[in-house]
Amino acid sequence: MRNFLFGITLCLTLGCIGCGSAIIGNMTTGPSSPSSTTPLPPALIEPPTMGVTGHNVFWWSIPWPPVQIATIRSFDSGWCFLEPTPGVWDFTTLDKDVERAQAENAQLELVLENPPGWVTGGPNGCVQPQFLLPPSIPDWITYVSIVGNRYKGKVHVYECKNEPDQPSEYGGTIAQLVPLCQAEYDTLKSIDPTITVTSPAFSGSSNAVSYAASYLQAGGIKSLDVINIHFQSEPNPEAMVSYYGGFQNLKTSEKLTNIPVWITECGYMIASGPNAKNPYTFPAGSRVLDSALSQEYVARMHLVAWALGVPKILWYAWGDDEYALVDDQGHTPKPATVAYGEVAALMSGLELLSYKVDSSGTWTLNIQDANGNPVHILWNENELTESVAVPSSWKVSQVQDLNGNTISLSGGSVSIAGLPIILKSSGN
To answer: What is the pTM of this model?
Structure first.
């Protein structure tokens, strides 16, 4: 597909590849989600829009993802890249990114940030510490206006600043940040009222919710169409339940009922696959998922997001070294790439009715397909192998895992562990 070295098939089977002592395989610890049987609001939930963030990846220069990618989030729009010296603009890379996204029918989401040193008084080029310093409002408006007008009708989503709650990303105050984002919002809306402007992307740190609350209460509530968050994904995908719930509670307290919450970064360090031309060496002590566990986590991350009603979730990152979903800067697929394609294909055309989490951490998603036939997806978030009784009312005729392997029913029960399995009725 599109000159990629790899074709996704729903029946592709990949084994577990051992990758060294720093790599984590199946885990048997980790907090379980609260036991619950949860009907979801609204009654039927469509799967989230899936996409990826690319950092240090020029999208025009690599094979386009052969899996279902609806949104690409890019940092190529950083101010220091576009105007490295006063009045000298270089859109070579970003123009190619935009053209490629349009050709592939994908939405490009641009992060506006990173003023050049000549604006903030820092050194020239795209290096710290100038990223930490807020520019003047007039200079910021000029940058936003030039980018917005150049891509009017081509780019429809913009973000104001990446992870300002992290000292390594931003050295200003909330009082300085709010006017910047308000100026971006007003400028882009004057160019095209249909543009979606997200809040700054609040990181997955322990203080992210409180920082977001302070930002909204300081006036940031007037400068966004979407609350934009990152999920650091520890200790497992199911930790999203409490983290995302914190932002949902914040929405309620600030009376933002109609404002969606997107997750524009989530991910893990993933070991290089067996076909990597340049396997990545991770820093000592890093938590790195092996091939089997990365497949499980990629699938479960998106299934949990679906259960929680997350409208959009972007994996971090596509071809970056440490967190790469694909090896060799986006050129060589790995088992996690397969899992991403599998879960995207699985969720297509389905609607979620309810989900249940029992006291041992076993999840059950109750779904229906486009014809109204029931589908059930099961896994255990603690990687425990369990035998689960299958109700006769489900009329199960087929059981598969996300690699397309057929699983047998024995005595009306099925064995589950960390990899989600799919049970389909005789009507499927």
So the answer is: 0.89
